[in-house]
Amino acid sequence: MNERLMKELRDSLYVHRPLPLHREESLEARFIKKKVTAAFPLFPSGNGVQPTVENDTVLQVNGDELTFSAPLTSGHWPKGASPDGDYSNFGTALISFSFPPMDWRPYHRIVLEVRPRSAGQQVQHLNLSIVNVGETPLPDPYFREGATVFDLDRDVWQTCIWEFDAMPRDAVTKLNLYVFLSGCDSGAPGQLVYDVRNIRLEAVDQPEFEYGWVNPQPGVRLSSVGYFLNDEKTAVLTTDSAAFQIISEKNGNCVFQGPVQLLQNERGSFHTADFSAVKKPGLYRLKTDDVESSVFEISDDLCRATVWRLINFFFCLRCGTPVPGKHGMCHQDIIARHQGRMIPFCGGWHDAGDVSQQAAQTAEITQALLECAARVKATDPLHARLMEEARWGLDFILKTRFGDGYRATSAGATRYTDNIIGTFDDISARVHNHSYENFLFSGVEAFAALTLQDEDPPLAVTALHATKQDFDFAVETFSQTGVDPAQMYEHTWNSGLSQYHAVRLWSASLLFRATKEPSYRAEILENAEKLMACQETGAAGLPFTGFFYRDETHSAIVHFNHQSREHQFMQALEAACTALPDAKEKPQWEKCMRQYGEYLKAIVGNTAPYGMLPAGVHRMDEAEDQALFRFLHVACDYEVEKENYKAQLRQGTEVAPGYVIRNFPVWFSFRGNNAVLLSAGKAASILGSYFHDQQLVQIAHEQLYWMWGKNPFGQSLVYGDGANWCRQYAVLCGECVGEVPVGIETLGNEDAPYWPQNNNATFREVWGAAACRMLWLCADTFKEEA
């Protein structure tokens, strides 16, 4: 790790205060340096366009400045909100500029200056959106296009730049500036005040590349954090040079030179550089006659700095406790009720930028933290900090149990409440006795019991007591209900029967390791057999096998498009092999694992020269399955999207009659594939480690390389990690070092990467689930065990 980060860690008391953002090093910091070739003023302007306000917003026009204000809280829900305030804030402070249709295509961005002066709101943000009535209307039905948000510093003027080269804008009729009224800290004045000036359109010489596999702009797209010592090390270049060099940052010497190679495939024509021969640890740059990369590291300890940054993000996501610079004590009045009893549903980590809560997500983050801690020496400060954060999560999943199978599972927020129980802004948490989630919680509790047995014996005993109870509750409920999706807003809503088998197998394997009780051995044998029955073994006639179906009928392939638990199948089988190393069934389990590994090897080349794992194989007729649609595509209308579903399948790569591989998921509203690729990468990592298969280890690492900038946009997708990282849709959480967004999306029904500068949900929204899977994958790169 570099000296600056080490100092910042010490200054933060090893992240008990958020790490500095270093906005000056972000992608957006260079926007203001671009050459402006044309400009058009919007306010103030000579065309007489004046802003109007809506709701309870108060507007003052002081010459060339606008000031708008509004209360951050209210005594009622805004029009159209849910009567119980579920997923509701207190309204929106909004000012609008309306004009006859204007063609903005000659311009690439909006620029404005903003100064927030809100009292009682620690995190400041400003949203912009447009209305376009041209060939492609905006906003779109899901409000994904045509909007952006800026995370702001308090009490200072700052320049905000929204680039939108790929955004439809041929007939713009409205520009909106708005802030969600989302509450404030307890006892704060609660008044929003923003000053705005100098709003203008600008054309620039080189707007950001936003769409496609082939980036035409000169540059180097590589893993800006670095590469592991024994991995294949490749980069994608846009260059006119025939050769490249690897330059030591220490002394400026060339340590390797090689030819720039041409690769042509279905994705396009690419220039690549292979420097796998460089295996000496150190800091390097890749250089040609006309382009040069940022500094990257070659090391087997690459993930240490990333893990610290992820810890920072999780700390900033904490719910139910003050977080310096983010919020005070929060959400003390989210209440879970069951049979006359109540539990305050605060703790764990907020789900995303909307500060909602998902207990299953907190459980998975806890598991990832524990896995990582188990691989780091007990004397390492990183181990202690990982365990501390894991205990925070474990406390939440233990305290949200009612003790009879029911537990508090989720709550929709999008606001900070007054923390007073009994006032109108209280939030009701959802409460379920759901077998899938109880199996999941049981597995996390069992792993915690195993991990903590030497370090914290009393907590280990508590976790073991809970895991046995929760497993029994899950078995009983499943025997009565089978697959039970529970509720659409639960993050486990899309789970099929094969996932139930997997999570039950995994939990039983950990329980057997912890207790050696024969009943758990029987569970392992039974559920491993059921899980294997859901795997493709050749009957489909494809050039590969190994993927999983939702159940043993093989009628529907497992797909993920937002949430992803692709790793659970291999996690479960590996856990079974570890728990029962002498079982006569073990060779069958290992065969199943090998088949899945061969599947990953068969499909990963579809995104070459990038190593991103495709979303998976699809049947061309699956768009006809209306019953399954609602579980995979939340908040979407089947009849509206059916033809789009078919169109997306047609964009896939045919691998056999009636079958295609999609690089990106089939999706409509919820777009972004970081959780998808990282979860599959975790599966590859599990297998690579178990079978000592370097090809699978490489596939796993390539998912990290994609996240660190070896993607068509050359951007790190982890804020503050590596180089060329961009702002994200943090909203109520505020920008955080280590935040990870939902991920790169696609444009319409296509199957190519799309990463617009529109900073909007869902694709750019910060998300604990994506960061969790990043940490899960990073954990496997630590070779030392405590």
- Give the percentage of residues in beta strands: 15-25%
Number of strands: 31
Uncertain regions spanning at least 5 consecutive residues: none
Sheet having the most strands: 6 strands, antiparallel
Anisotropy-based shape:
globular
Q: What's the average pLDDT?
A: 96
| Backbone CA Rg | 26 Å
Number of helices: 15
Distance between the termini: 20 Å
Secondary-structure content class: alpha+beta
Q: What is the percent of helical residues?
A: 25-40%
Oligomer: single chain
Structural notes for this entry:
It is a single chain. The protein has 786 residues and is α+β, with helices and mostly antiparallel strands. Helix content is 29%, strand content 21%. The chain is built from 15 helices and 31 strands. The strands form eight sheets. Strands 1, 3, 4, 6, 9 and 11 form a six-stranded antiparallel β-sheet that branches. Strands 2-5-10-7-8 form a five-stranded antiparallel β-sheet, with no helix packed on it. Helix 3 (359-374) runs parallel beside helix 15 (768-779) and helix 13 (674-691) packs parallel to helix 15. It is globular and about 85 Å long.
Quick description:
This protein is of the alpha+beta class.
SSE diagram, text form:
Blueprint: H1 3-11, E1 36-43, E2 52-54, E3 58-62, E4 65-71, E5 92-102, E6 109-116, E7 124-132, E8 147-152, E9 158-163, E10 172-180, E11 191-204, E12 219-221, E13 226-227, E14 234-238, E15 243-248, E16 254-259, E17 261-265, E18 268-274, E19 282-287, E20 296-298, H2 303-316, E21 334-338, E22 341-344, E23 357-358, H3 359-374, H4 381-399, E24 407-411, E25 427-428, E26 430-432, H5 435-452, H6 457-481, H7 497-515, H8 518-532, H9 568-579, H10 586-603, E27 616-619, H11 626-632, H12 638-650, E28 653-656, E29 659-662, H13 674-691, H14 694-707, E30 745-746, E31 753-754, H15 768-779
Parallel strand pairs: 13-20, 21-25
Antiparallel strand pairs: 1-11, 2-5, 3-4, 4-11, 5-10, 6-9, 6-11, 7-8, 7-10, 12-14, 14-18, 15-16, 15-19, 17-18, 19-20, 21-22, 23-24, 24-26, 27-29, 28-29, 30-31
Helix pairs in contact: 2-4, 2-15, 3-4, 3-5, 3-15, 5-6, 5-7, 6-7, 7-8, 7-9, 8-9, 9-10, 9-13, 10-13, 13-14, 13-15
